[in-house]
Design a protein that fits this description.
Helix content: 40-55%
CATH superfamily of the largest domain: NadA-like
CATH class of the largest domain: Alpha Beta
CATH topology of the largest domain: Rossmann fold
Order of helices and strands: HEHEHEHEHEHEHEHEHHEHEHEHEHH
Radius of gyration: 19 Å
Bound molecules: 1,3-dihydroxyacetonephosphate, iron/sulfur cluster
Largest sheet: 4 strands, parallel
Strand content: 15-25%
Distance between the termini: 43 Å
Number of strands: 12
Strand order of the largest sheet: 2-1-3-4
C-alpha cells in the first residue's frame, strides 16, 4: 500500500497536480488528498487553485464545477462513471423547458447538477449556503428549487418562503428512516443527532443539528471534549470526524448510508489518471461560460 502511495506522491509532484477530495470518499483517499471538504469548500478551492492538473476525488458534477471554475487546469476524474443519482434527476432539456414555460421564476440549482443544467439556471447553492442564497432573492419573485426536493423543503420551512420544488432527491439521504434514528437514539441516549439537509423534513424534525458535511465537522470541533454524536449522513465522513476528534465518539446510522458512486474512487484509479492523464473533464467553452455565472453569483454572496 505504501508503495502505491509513494507512486501517487511521485506522479503528483511530476505533474504538478493537486488532489481534491469530498468528505464522502474512502478514508485512504482523504489521507492522500491535498484538500478534503464539502461542496462549497471544494468550489472555493477550485476557484483559487493554480495547478495545471487537478485530480478530483468525488463525483462528476463536482469535477465539472472544478473545471468551470478553473478552466485552464486539466481536471481529471479518476473514475469517469462516478456520477450522482440526484443530479441525474434533472436533465438540461427538462430545466430549459421549465424555464421557457415559467420565464418569471428564479431558478435556484443545488450544485448537485450537471454543467448543462447550471448553464440554464440563475443561481447555484450548496447545502452550506442554501438559506443565504434563497434569502438573497427578492420576496416578490417565484422560485423553483432544483433538483433536491428535500433540501428545498427544509430551506422553505426554515425561511417560511414558499418555493416550487423539483421532484428529485438523494436516494441515500432520502432513505434515512425514522426507525434507524429511533434505534440509534435508544442505544446512545447521550449523543447529539446530526443529519444532512438532503434528508426529508420529517427526519430533520427528529435531529438536533442539520448541517452540510463541512458544517458538521466545524460543529463537532467546537463541541466539548467527550461529546458523542449520531451521524446521519454518508458514512465516508466518519473518517475525518474520528481522525480530527479523537476525544469524541461517533455512531453511524444502521443501515450504513452509502453512496456507491463516491466509493468508486480508489487509490489505484488516482495513480492511473496521474500516470496517463486520461479521464479529463471536457466541457464546451460556451457551456463553461454560461455555467460559471450562477456559481459565481453564489460565491459572490
Ligand atoms: P456537502 O458536502 O456539500 O454537504 O454535500 C453533500 C453531498 O451529498 C454531496 O454530494
Ligand atoms: Fe449524489 Fe447523494 Fe451521492 Fe451526494 S451522496 S453524490 S447527492 S447520490
Amino acid at each position: 500500500m505504501s508503495e502505491l502511495i509513494n507512486e501517487i506522491n511521485r506522479l503528483k509532484k511530476e505533474r504538478n497536480a493537486v488532489i481534491l477530495a469530498h468528505n464522502y470518499v474512502n478514508g485512504d483517499i482523504q489521507d492522500i488528498a491535498d484538500f478534503t471538504g464539502d461542496s462549497l469548500e471544494l468550489s472555493i478551492k477550485a476557484q483559487n487553485v493554480n495547478a495545471p492538473v487537478i485530480v478530483f476525488c468525488g463525483v462528476s458534477f463536482m469535477a465539472e464545477t472544478a473545471k468551470i471554475l478553473s478552466p485552464a487546469s486539466k481536471v481529471l476524474l479518476p473514475v469517469m462513471d462516478a456520477g450522482c443519482q440526484m443530479a441525474d434527476m434533472a436533465s438540461a432539456q427538462a430545466v430549459a423547458d421549465y424555464r421557457k414555460a415559467n420565464p418569471d421564476t428564479v431558478l435556484v440549482a443545488y450544485v448537485n447538477t450537471t454543467a448543462a443544467v447550471k448553464a440554464e439556471v440563475d443561481i447555484c447553492c450548496t447545502s452550506a449556503n442554501a438559506e443565504k442564497v434563497v434569502k438573497s432573492i427578492p420576496a416578490d419573485k417565484k422560485i423553483m428549487f432544483l433538483p433536491d426536493r428535500n433540501l428545498g423543503a427544509n430551506v422553505s420551512k426554515t425561511l417560511n418562503r414558499p418555493m416550487e420544488l423539483w421532484p428529485g432527491c438523494c436516494p441515500i439521504h432520502d432513505q434515512v428512516l425514522a426507525c434507524s434514528i429511533q434505534s440509534a437514539r435508544a442505544k446512545h441516549p447521550a449523543a447529539k443527532l446530526m443529519v444532512h439537509p438532503e434528508c426529508p423534513p420529517e427526519i430533520l424534525a427528529l435531529a438536533d443539528i442539520a448541517l452540510s458535511t463541512g458544517g458538521m465537522l466545524r460543529a463537532v470541533r467546537e463541541a466539548a471534549p467527550g461529546s458523542e454524536f449520531i451521524v446521519g449522513t454518508e458514512y465516508g465522513i466518519m473518517h475525518r470526524l474520528q481522525k480530527e476528534n479523537p476525544d469524541k465518539t461517533f455512531y453511524p446510522l444502521e443501515p450504513l448510508p452509502t453512496c456507491r458512486d463516491m466509493k468508486k474512487i480508489t487509490l489505484e484509479s488516482i495513480r492511473d489518471v496521474l500516470a496517463d492523464l486520461n479521464n479529463e473533464v471536457i466541457l464546451p467553452a460556451e457551456m463553461i461560460e454560461k455555467a460559471r455565472r450562477p456559481i459565481e453569483r453564489m460565491l459572490a454572496l
